[in-house]
């Protein structure tokens, strides 16, 4: 999903997400409804991956992969077969076949359909049961007497593929259709390293031994009997020769030579079956293709296949995928429009099918004409995140462990790797957004699975990745520059910077879980530096990311520290990742700018103005596919759908999800990188793109409140200088807080389930005498004075004198764990007017005085907001000097109305710097 400098354009990447327990701030939307299911487009995917979940992958291909594809000698087929019996140690890019194809003759009416490249309108998709459905359509522009479909079931955990021909006779007379099922093997050996093939009458199968070239054993067998067979030499077209290639005799008279053995460099295996298709009726014919490392194992695979019918194996595959889907999150109960839920399921199944079962990576696109067999680590990471978020953790685990294994010594990653071997393939370098994605993904996988073994296994790589960012903060406060998502130039991209911050927060959380406060604080400081630069005006020198004159976040800061003012939809990652609060005024202004500037096709979003990729750009993968500039990129629309959901605009969020579904390929296959705003169809050269499907999955899960893509800082750096006035009852106080940076807490994580004591965000500032804190809760209301349920606000802090001899505690007053030791606590309870000061004595929090020099904490019952003024002198055993930093934890405490027991319900922690005047503030969000 990026604009490549050298030749193509890669898929986009991106972000993290939470499990179903982490939830959003808006009420769950009502069921999406439709009188009939939303339909996909009529465009078909031209290439699709399948695998057996363990060690084998196949690629189905249409006759033409894109408009620029001149290799149109083949028809609909299995175009590739990759096998790695020893797992990653045997991972190989070798394709074991040239093609595995079906050919046809109508023997009743004398029609031949064996120039299969003339099935130019053939379609293919993978259904929700994991079966690839290929329909042949017209032959050379005319309807066939029997409609033909070829279904593929790569049976999970088996070493064979079952093919079943679906035949329907729309006519009034029976038709005898002759089916030739043939595989052309790809011998990679040198002269003399022949393939030896033979016919096994017992198994009704042809066996090929490719071991002379270091390859494998392949078996083609019939499940419904055979009328003829041939093991032949593909280079031999002599009809009278015993080893003639099977197509020639089939084309000649519908027969095969029944040769039972051959040794040649170029070998075909073939079986033909005559099928009577009744008038107005249906029939099937089933075959299998097996692969194994030894003859014994090949026979075992053949015997396993032969034990059941083709229909059994298709049903077996459907059951396996149905169970796999059922084990994760679904949207069938959320969307009454079954088109949306079908697109969700098909996206997941296509992602499952396209993942390398050996390495865990995903191709940039299932159509190799655009990007070959490259895997972008950024794109694969977000695809793994989508699987984790939907409850499919094994697949995500495999990917993140692989990604950790290829990390560079400095903590970064290469841009692309070979999909088959996992070896680095040099491309546009560096694309450092992958560093943030890895940190987010590894953290989320641990959180969602509870697998501390995984956490500990990748902890060294987490440390290296987080240190890579924190050790390379630039003079402008941002993380290292890179080519990022669009791969056009090295700059400080908003997209990458957002992922740096989110990734550092994720790493900080892991460090916190391992009691590594040194790393956690280092990474918190780096995240604060970047977050501050993101909120700094682009008019400053060096420029920040915020375009203050026009109210949006720029695409980037240029390498020379000037602002790149491009309006770019990828910058929405700032909100999607939670680095910028989607509800903040700046985020709302930014999204409005993106939508008003880049919207096409009603709910589609272009990358940026004047984008000519897929149109006139010389780097377009297949020439002019978009038919106009600024094609819509579905991933960008899904970012907007996520932002819409977070801000409560569920109507537009649903409309964007529905728009995506209408721009999927036939059978609801995920689109490629872009959609033509002219044809309103997906671009075929990069379809299917797994990461585009992943973003629909994420957006649908966010919309249905089953995921949250935002990362939340466990402890944020903070510091700003302002003198504020707190009045009794908070009267007239709120406008003065608008410029003060605020920090977001995850909503919905309070212990009690009572949103009154669930922190939404906290703003904080100081002047020479006091620290000022504003707390907004999630409910927007609070009980009045001495009203049930009673609550309290407690603020814990370290000793701002920096003394190491002050007694501290990591346990709050009512038992909650504090993330950093605290020496002092101040608080007010809602049934008291006393503003109490506490210190630690004998291991317990002990009231030692009342604070009377400032107003006691105030709250507004109608808004759920609380204000606290803390004298700086209350948080120190000596002088509280400007520039000193100490942890501050703000806790909302709740009394159980039934038991009367008090407990900390939610808390937010900061590393707060006492900030002098004329010193840059640390951000935070801007209200």
Q: What are the salient characteristics of this protein?
A:
927 residues; alpha+beta; eight-stranded antiparallel beta sheet; 16 helices; 23% helix
What is this structure, in a nutshell?
This protein has 16 helices and 41 strands. Strand 24 (556-557) and strand 25 form a beta hairpin.
Low-confidence parts? 1-31
Distance between the termini: 32 Å
| Number of distinct helices | 16
Instruction: Give the biggest sheet.
Output: 9 strands, antiparallel
The strand line-up of the biggest sheet is 6-7-8-9-17-13-12-11-15
Beta-strand proportion: 15-25%
Number of E strands = 41
Backbone shape: elongated
Backbone structural class = alpha+beta
What helical percentage do the residues reach? 10-25%
The average pLDDT score comes to 95
Overall radius of gyration: 32 Å
Protein model, in words:
The structure is a single chain. By secondary structure, the protein is of the alpha+beta class. 23% of the residues lie in helices and 25% in strands. The strands form nine sheets. Strands 6-7-8-9-17-13-12-11-15 form a nine-stranded antiparallel beta sheet. β19 (416-418) and β20 form a beta hairpin. The longest helix has 20 residues, at 494-513. The radius of gyration is 32 Å and the shape is elongated. It starts with 46 loop residues before the first strand and ends in a 14-residue tail after the last strand. Mean pLDDT is 95; it is low at 1-31.
